[in-house]
Amino acid sequence: MPILGYDAIEFYVGNARQAAHYYRTAFGFDVTAYAGPEHGIRDRCSYVLEQGGIRFVVTGGLGPDSPIVRHQATHGDGVKDVAFLVPNAEEAFAVAVQRGAQALAEPYVDEDDHGKIVRASITAYGDTIHTFVDRSNYSGVYAPGYHPTNHQVPAEATGLQFVDHVVCNVELGQMDRWAKYYADIMGFTQLHHFDDEAIATDYTALMSKVLWDGDGRIKLPINEPAAGKKKSQIEEYLDFYGSAGVQHMALATDDIVETVRRMRANGVRFLSTPATYYEDLRERLDWTTIDADLDTLQELGVLVDQDDEGYLLQIFTKAVQDRPTVFYEVIERHGSRGFGVGNFKALFEAIERDQAERGNL
Ligand code: FE2
């Protein structure tokens, strides 16, 4: 199945106006389009946010009977739709359904003066969906019904460039089912597999499989909890989200130091990393091949991992809404196609410190 990339990631939130403001001021996304009652859409407000090649849509419902409001009541703010850009939405939908995907919306066409856009949706883990989008014949902002937001204050970009991967948490025993789903329906293959030996601390254990499209445009790690001494971070997510769902999105930059400096200055909160992690790194990694200043990385809390293909720099935010569910990763890759397995232990211990603070460990 040909997939050209992520089209957009749509969130259902409690207050789209304020969510849009957060992503503009904190993450540096421009608010590029809006749809809502002012333009005849009665049941929702949606803001489109763009930076580099990343497009988010934040949507809020306007009444108690709205499925958007009900979704938000169940899950809190979260990702509803991981939409894929495809050359032909009818064909992508037909192939997916024929291979076993559950249809949610048959192909439909929306048109305005700027052309037409064809979309169709299938269900995925939890209440999450995938929409196939063909916008090759559309030149307007985002989609029919949306209007430019020229009055919005422009953002100061933080250097985020594209979505590197989108991670989901699924229930105990469900990882293989969802890995098979993406293999069967999208034709994805397994890039990595991490077992609970690789990903275990005193409290948390999890297993993860990474499915990808083969050329790196789409990478979808799938996590499931494994038995630990206490409640794992995956179980905490599932308890508070109320189902499987998107856990984190990794956003790529080519200058993580500058990106993280700006995001920190904007008030984004990141997980902290102990000094012992950096002492260990000086010994553990081959620094002759890494073009980064360890003191600066330590000052900002950026993690480093290295494998046969190269290295990567990464950092994780704290949860970005009230519930301990969705968070972000900022990543700068230099050859490595990995996910920072060498950092998992340090990372999870940092997450557990936060979890303990919330009384959930
Ligand atoms: Fe990640």
**The CATH class of the largest domain:** Alpha Beta
CATH 4th-level superfamily of the largest domain: 2,3-Dihydroxybiphenyl 1,2-Dioxygenase, domain 1
> Which range best describes the helical content: under 10%, 10-25%, 25-40%, 40-55%, 55-70% or over 70%?
25-40%
> Major sheet, described briefly?
9 strands, mixed
Which class of secondary structure composition applies to the elements? Answer: alpha+beta
Poorly predicted parts? none
- Average residue-wise pLDDT: 94
Estimate the strand proportion. Answer: 25-35%
> With helices defined by DSSP (H or I, 4 residues minimum), what is the helix count?
9
Radius of gyration: 20 Å
N-to-C span: 42 Å
Shape: globular
Q: What are the secondary-structure elements, in order, as H or E?
A: EHEEEHEHEEEEEHEEEHEHHHEEEH
- CATH topology of the largest domain, by name, is 2,3-Dihydroxybiphenyl 1,2-Dioxygenase, domain 1
Provide the list of bound ligands, each named once.
Answer: fe (ii) ion
Number of DSSP-assigned strands? 17
Per CATH, the architecture of the largest domain is Roll
State the domain count: 2
* Sheet with the most strands: spatial strand order: 6-7-8-5-1-4-3-2-9
